[in-house]
Amino acid sequence: MQRAKVLFERSLSALTPFLAVLLALAVGAIMLFALKVDPITAYGALIEGAFGSPFALAQVLVKATPLLLVGLGICIAFRGGVINIGGEGQIIVGALATAAFTLALPQAPAIVLLVGGMLCGMLAGGIWGGIAGALKARFGVNEILTTIMMNAIAAQLANFLLRGPMIDPIEVKNGTMLAQSARLPELSWLPKLVPQTLLHAGAIVAVIMAVVVYILLWRTVLGYRIRAVGLNAEAARFAGIRVPVYQALALLLSGVMAGLAGSVEVLGVSHRMMDGVSGGYGFSGIVAALFGKLHPLGAIPASALFGSLLVGADKMQRAVQVPSALIDALNGLVVLFVVSSDILVRRRAQRRKAAERKS
Amino acid sequence: MTLLPTGRARIDELRMVGITKRFPGVLANDGVDFDVRAGEIHALLGENGAGKSTLMRQLYGLYKPDAGEIRLNGAARRFNSPSDAIHAGIGMIHQHFMLVPALTVAENVALGLASSRGPLLDLDRVSKRIEELGERYHLKVQPDAQVWQLSVGEQQRVEILKALYRGAALLALDEPTAVLTPQEVGEFFKVLRRMAEDGHALIFISHKLHEVIDISHRVTVMRDGKVVATHPTAGSTRERLAGEMVGRPILLEYDKPPVPAAAANEVPRLEVEDLHVRGDRGRDALRGVSLSIRSGEILGIAGVSGNGQRELAEALTGLRRVTRGRVRVNGRDLTHATPQQRIAAGQSAIPEERMKDGVVRDFSVSENLILQDHGHAPYSRAGFLNTRAITRDCAALVKDYSVKTPALETPTKNLSGGNIQKLILARELARKPTLLICAQPTRGVDIGASEYIHQRLLEQRQRGMATLLISEDLDELMALSDRIAVMYEGRLMAVLDRADATPAKLGLLMAGVAA
Question: CB distance B385–A358 less than 8 Å?
Answer without folding.
Answer: no
